[in-house]
Amino acid sequence: MVEKQTAGRDRLEDFAPKFAELNDDVLFGEVWSREKLLSARDRSLITVASLMSQGLFPQLKSHMLLAKKNGVTKKEIIEIITQLAFYAGWPKAWSAFSLAKEIWN
């Protein structure tokens, strides 16, 4: 079962309350909780790949932490980054490996 997320409200409720609500209740509440269609682990794999490909490293770190919680192993994250290096770019892979090493070690 997906853990209830409060990052939107924790960080933005006073500044952008509607965005915080959509983040916590829709994205992480409704979409991520549809585990009969796609597991949280698989959603993490897809999200990590997308964020790395786009070079969105602050968000990638948060989602790598979530991926680890959702059961993605060190060997799997290494393989994902290696695969994406050829499609998303070598420098992005280097940056992603730095984050992964920090999280999985």
UniProtKB/TrEMBL annotation:
SUPFAM superfamilies: AhpD-like. One of its GO terms (molecular function) is peroxiredoxin activity. Pfam families: CMD. Residues 17-102 form the Carboxymuconolactone decarboxylase-like domain. It comes from the Bacteria. InterPro entries: 4CMD/NDH-1_regulator, AhpD-like, CMD-like. PANTHER family: 4-CARBOXYMUCONOLACTONE DECARBOXYLASE FAMILY PROTEIN, BLL4600 PROTEIN. This is Carboxymuconolactone decarboxylase-like domain-containing protein.
